[in-house]
Write a structure and sequence with these properties.
The chain contains 8 helices and no strands. With 230 residues, it is mainly alpha-helical. Helix 2 runs antiparallel to helix 3, helix 4 packs parallel to helix 6 and helix 7 packs antiparallel against helix 8. The radius of gyration is 18 Å and the shape is globular.
Length: 230
């Protein structure tokens, strides 16, 4: 009975996660900031609860990654450059923890395909960087983000190509969505900061909810599956 109650609770929270994501996207579309301040941080917080209920290992790093995701989500809501700067710092910590966590799960053995995958991704991100109006206080942090994004993308692509497993499929899906999210935020905050493009924030939050759910599934599958070097 206890198992059934726990399973039912998990199903309810999972459904609520997607309901909350839909409300968040709608609130972003209609600029309802009071609702956004509630629904946006709930996305990583609900994933933390789902992971606590589902995981047998309950890795502390997962909770830290979600914690900094929560902080970043809150700091990216206001249209204030100083608060955005603190958001960029929080996002930097989040992304470093994310990279470290994934590297602990996926071991790289074939470095040449990995390095070759990094180069085209670097070109894409640094092209946008060169064409954008990045504040001086965020300049070097954004460079670091671009490098981390390229490394993360290369890791996911290489692992999937060499070992097309369920674990690496979830990793590839989550990372591609993470990179898409970073591009959307980058375009909104720096590349087209003077333009009022209403659909970018709802699009970003749609990608955000799907990316973190795929990452959560990757972590769960990784805890069950035996890791394979790539």
């Amino acid at each position: 009975m206890a198992y059934e109650n726990k399973y039912d609770l998990f199903k309810v929270i999972t459904i609520f996660y997607f309901v909350n994501a839909i409300i968040e996207v709608t609130a972003e579309a209609y600029r309802l900031k009071d609702i956004v301040y509630i629904t946006k941080p709930l996305i990583p917080l609900l994933l933390m609860l789902m992971y606590w209920l589902k995981s047998t290992k309950r890795n502390t790093l997962f909770f830290l990654i979600m914690l900094f995701s929560t902080i970043t989500n809150l700091l990216f809501i206001p249209d204030d450059k100083m608060i955005l700067f603190y958001g960029v710092i929080s996002f930097t910590i989040h992304r470093l923890l994310l990279l470290y966590f994934i590297f602990k799960i996926v071991e790289i053995k074939k470095t040449i395909p990995f390095v070759l995958s990094i180069l085209p991704l670097l070109m894409v991100f640094f092209y946008l960087f060169a064409a954008s109006d990045v504040p001086d206080n965020s300049y070097y942090l954004i460079i670091l983000h671009n490098v981390m994004a390229a490394v993360l993308g290369a890791l996911a692509i290489t692992s999937y190509v060499i070992d097309d497993s369920k674990r690496n499929s979830y990793l590839l899906i989550s990372v591609l969505l993470f990179l898409g999210l970073q591009l959307i935020i980058y375009v909104e905050k720096y590349y087209l900061s003077d333009e009022n493009i209403y659909f970018l924030r709802p699009l970003a939050m749609s990608v955000n909810a799907l990316a973190f759910f795929a990452f959560y599934k990757f972590v769960l599958v990784s805890e069950i599956a035996k890791p394979k070097p790539i």
